[in-house]
Design a protein that fits this description.
The chain contains four helices and six strands; from the N terminus they run ααβαββββαβ. Strand 4 and strand 5 form a beta hairpin.
Amino acid sequence: MKNGEIREGSSIGSTASPEQDLVERSKLLGEGQTSTGCSWDKCLICMGIFGGAVGFLFLVLVTAILVAMFTLPFPRHASCSVNITFPQRCSGVRDALIHQMHMWSGMNNCESGGQKCLYEVTSVKGNIVSGTHTTPKFRFMDYITFKFGHEEGQCIVEAFSTSAFWFAWLDFGTNYCNIHNLVEGMDISNYTEQTDNTICTQYSTANCDKY
């Protein structure tokens, strides 16, 4: 081989200029290929398959949720209605309830677990007491109302708790426990509760020591 001669096929001493390389890449793109040699058609097909799979899984998930919502015996929104009967006048029951909500307004009672804390009285109007309860860990808020009425020497309380979040459906019995924990904390004996799963989300499995 003569000095300075370049063997055919060798990559040494390539004479392709940057402008020529750019032209070649443009030709590839014009022919439906990426700069790595992948066909645009194949890429679009792959993207379509992936998008279809994601859409199908989303549809299955939504369908499963809707089927569960219309077959399980729970309210359509996370909430709980409880009728509570106390063997005494409503004035004493109402005052005890408000006092208990104030006692559990801070975080102190939840330092070792549970959710018997972060209650707030928002209004007291006649025979209706309204308030909120916020879960200590995730800070989800629920609205609570208590309506007091006398009947045959007893105090009948219509209690209701509902999630402030529109998308909430299951709540692990939290809305029931919002009410039950307060009533239990009032330390009034011989009261009775009346509710069920159809008007109180996950009532039958609620664990009020935890929630």
